[in-house]
Design goal:
alpha/beta; eight-stranded mixed β-sheet; 11 helices
Length: 315
């Protein structure tokens, strides 16, 4: 056997082994639906300790409100579910898209009560491959953006097109609502609240590979993209918020904590800079990932309420 053949066999073998390792240790755990319920209160997060009583009270209130369950079918035939908390004399509807392997109540416990107290309906979709919705794989907003669009259309029809709609997302849900702004949304979508989102699945996976896994980007990120295409039918480069924001016309409020190591703050700053629509940027001091509301509650709520009132005409 020639040296060229031996080298070729070794390289192919290494490629196969590395691909298998990326598939088993990274792609499947990252994209697949996880078993078991997601906590509604994150008791082990030390930064949330001073606010746990408020969060527990908000979660209890949500369950006592007996939310309705609404259902639609996605563009690719996945059954989707959402919890709906209607308000009396509603002023509008907030659609809350939760984060990566998160849950509607876990991510939005304080926000649900806040909006409902101000007479806003709250719609809480379970993203695909989460909770009560179907699907085996999440897609980091690439396909979820169409689900967000369809939820906006469904709730607009339910309210006879008479109420303003706010899209509100955290982390992956943030990327989802921003990506959805590049689609044809109901004209009643007044604005978007974008809390700690990334610029693209590719950028976020690259960041996690470097900071959490300490793996080289080449060839890991490219194998991940190849496997995402083969396993879940999407590319990590398929949609970028930076591209969407160059054409988006919906006002967006970007929010991020300056101590966020999971989705780095610069990603929201880049999104803000790319956005050609009316925009605001709120940076929450010393706040890690996805808990900006709890850590800066008064300023967060005042800022969000003012932004919605400015663009929806009511709060």
């Amino acid at each position: 056997m020639s040296i060229v053949v031996i080298i070729a066999v070794v390289l192919v073998s290494l490629f196969v082994v590395l691909t298998l390792l990326v598939y088993l240790l990274l792609v499947i755990p990252t994209l697949s639906r996880r078993k078991g319920p997601v906590p509604e209160v994150f008791e082990d997060n030390v930064r949330l300790a001073p606010y746990l009583s408020e969060i527990r009270a908000a979660v209890d209130w949500f369950h006592s409100a007996n939310p309705e369950t609404l259902r639609i079918t996605s563009f690719d035939a996945i059954p989707l579910a959402a919890w709906y908390v209607p308000a009396k004399n509603a002023r509008g509807t907030v659609i809350c898209m939760h984060g990566y392997h998160g849950s509607p109540v876990g991510d939005f416990s304080l926000a649900i009560k806040f909006f409902h107290d101000h007479n806003w309906n709250v719609l809480l979709p379970h993203e695909r491959a989460h909770g009560e919705s179907g699907g085996r794989y999440l897609t980091f907003g690439v396909r979820e953006r169409f689900d967000c669009r369809d939820w906006a259309k469904a709730i607009d029809e339910k309210n006879n097109g008479s109420l303003p709609i706010v899209l509100y997302g955290i982390s992956m849900g943030c990327a989802t609502v921003v990506m959805s702004s590049g689609l044809e949304l109901p004209k009643n979508v007044a604005c978007i609240i974008a809390d700690c989102g990334y610029t693209s699945p590719f950028d976020e996976i690259a960041h996690v590979l470097k900071t959490s896994y300490h793996l080289p980007l080449f060839p890991t990120i490219y194998l991940s993209d190849m496997l995402a295409r083969l396993v879940a039918g999407f590319s990590l480069k398929e949609c970028s918020t930076l591209d969407v924001l160059k054409v988006n016309k919906i006002p967006i409020m970007f929010i991020h904590g300056d101590a966020d190591n999971f989705v780095p703050t610069y990603m929201s700053q880049k999104n803000y800079e790319a956005c050609v629509a009316e925009k605001e940027l709120l940076i929450v001091k010393d706040s890690p990932h996805a808990i900006n509301h709890a850590l800066d509650r008064k300023n967060y709520e005042q800022s969000v309420a003012a932004f919605i009132k400015k663009h929806a005409g009511i709060f």
